[in-house]
Amino acid sequence: MTAATHSTLFPQVPESADAVLDGLDPEQREVALALHGPVCVLAGAGTGKTRAITHRIAYGVRAGILQPGGVLAVTFTNRAAGEMRGRLRQLGAGGVQARTFHSAALRQLQYFWPKAVGGDLPRLLERKVQLVAEAAARCRVRLDRNELRDVTSEIEWAKVTQTVPADYPAVVAKSVREAPRDPAEIGQIYGMYEQLKRERAVIDFEDVLLLTVAILQDRHDIADQIRRQYHHFVVDEYQDVSPLQQRLLDLWLGDRDSLCVVGDASQTIYSFTGATPDHLLNFRARHPGATVVKLVRDYRSTPQVVHLANGLLSQARGRAAEHRLELISQRDPGPEPAYTEYGDEPAEAEGTARRIRDLIAAGVPAGEIAVLYRINAQSEVYEQALADAGVPYQLRGAERFFERQEVREAGIALRGAARAGGNDSLLDDVEDLPAQVRAVLSTKGWTAEPPAGSGAVRDRWESLAALVRLAEDFARARSGATLSDLVAELDERAAAQHAPTVQGVTLASLHAAKGLEWDAVFLVGLTEGMMPITYAKTDEQVEEERRLLYVGVTRARLHLSLSWALSRAPGGRASRRPTRFLKGLRPGSGGLGAGGGALAGGSVERGLGGAAEGGARRRQRGPVRCRVCGATLTEAGEMKLMRCEDCPSDMDEALYERLRDWRAEQAGLLGQPAYCVFTDKTLMAIAERVPTTDGELVGISGVGARKLGRFGADVLALCAGEAPGGTGGEDDEES
Length: 735
What we know:
Elements: H1 17-20, H2 26-33, E1 39-43, H3 49-62, E2 71-75, H4 78-90, E3 97-100, H5 101-116, E4 123-124, H6 129-138, H7 145-160, H8 168-174, H9 183-200, E5 202-203, H10 205-218, H11 220-229, E6 232-235, H12 243-253, E7 259-263, H13 278-281, H14 283-286, E8 291-295, E9 297-298, H15 303-314, H16 319-322, E10 328-329, E11 338-344, H17 345-361, E12 369-373, H18 379-388, E13 393-395, H19 405-420, H20 433-441, H21 456-477, H22 483-496, E14 505-509, E15 518-523, H23 539-553, E16 556-567, E17 604-606, H24 636-641, H25 653-670, H26 680-689, H27 694-698, H28 704-719
Parallel strand pairs: 1-7, 1-8, 2-3, 2-6, 4-5, 6-7, 9-10, 11-16, 11-17, 12-14, 12-15, 13-14, 15-16
Helix pairs in contact: 2-3, 5-10, 6-9, 8-9, 10-11, 10-12, 15-23, 17-18, 19-22, 20-21, 25-26
């Protein structure tokens, strides 16, 4: 197979079992050949773990060592399971079951429920939030939307850690977990939620695992039947296994040891859901004779990106850090990571959008660029900035590609055209497959040029354009392929949830980015309080935040940009600090202690906006948003404060009173009303932001250059707790 004859998206099925091993590095080959007994694969980011384990399964099947129907491969997301099924199909091992824990358990539960319990399986509750809200109301507990979400997550955590309602308060008290409300109150809501489920004969996703575990524990005949079906197990992302999932895996295995686990303790970022790396770290203790293989050759990222990733982990502490993997890049050198400091968050978003636009202009596809942030609430300012810059984007976490309405409609149209063959007038005088697809999809909204801007129309076009690109790749890989062949391929990919890439910049949280990769990654908002997040209090929680940043860094193949803003809003107090995790790694931040090394090359740039421009005002673009809740501000007074009137204020009350007294004195000297000096809203804004420089003061709406010259020294002295030294001059309207 050569690049000239076959697309990498559609590789030829290997001709033999030995051919499956072609192209594997020595460690990956060792994984593929380790088909007996317990196997533990410690795989660093970008080291080809999915390649190693899918080739392992395929080799075992093609060599006759493993029976396809006797293998169960489990992972944590439908996307990962779909990718695994797609790869196994391409390797000639299409009969292997690759599923999530929940999907595998649900199939077993549906099949065995009539035999084990009788009757029909209770209805699966798709969204538990509404039932949790009703449970809280019955307990006479009022929850707002955010509290409801937190309590729901807490119930999910309790269930996957096998904690019953009565034990919840005691378990939380013994753990380092910080409950969102009084634990006794949550335990009461949890108990009522379970009661409501029983009354209505419904189960939730956690019950799927709990009930499967219960049946396998109580019915040895059913457990034996499952063990007769599945003889070999593979678990991907093993560092994310919860106690409940481990219990289910133990019951599937029984007294056998035909198990291969793959994971990386340094990528444990879901402990809030009950995931723990302990099962991975204790694997060799539980299985003393296990084969252990380490994958450290990083094929994804450049040496510069890998060096930063290794540097992050070199500062880590705790048990997971003791088992960290030192990655070795296999790629040619690339650009140094870029570090950029901005005056405020809008400036950071606009600067990021400009850099992305430059990358796209230089030839980097939009679909190979991502902006990653700590929490989803950070996305809006980047959506606005990218839209203003004319850059298409997509939010990670939207509905699956093949479930989108436009994709379903396109599939129907392509299937109809394939069935009609030469009788479809759309295909008259259209010879090759891509041209046929373009002709058919033109009736559904596809055009040669994308529509302007973003939004639903652009999203629809991007979906159709992805199908056109897929057809082009398919035609290059399969000489002589017909429209019917493409439709069959689309059906198989839909079944495997193997979607093509939509060409738009990805906006995603760091958690949602796990398992993905891009040519260029922008890690934004890297300030103390956001990274690590404010509520990370314990050493364990802070270390998980470090691992989350490590996951973000290792998503980048070539270009990596890290940025932070000194204040939230334009003109705000520049009180923020870059994340502690970059200390000793970013230029100018000091050296590392033992075990680390400062990065070579790179520099910290000062982005446009705020103090970086010596106090010059940055032209405001787009809507002005509340710096507390993010809502769009329309009232002049609110825009001056940069927050909603009813949002909480962090104003220095004593400073505000000093400013009012000073203003009254100045107004008396000038013989003018007090508002001619500064309005109340401007004084409130000053007392909230407490500026320390001319640049910070002039950035506050209502100050302006002339008033800065007249009153600036006095105001800054008052902000510093000192006595003002002068008086104002002739009167002037507030700018």
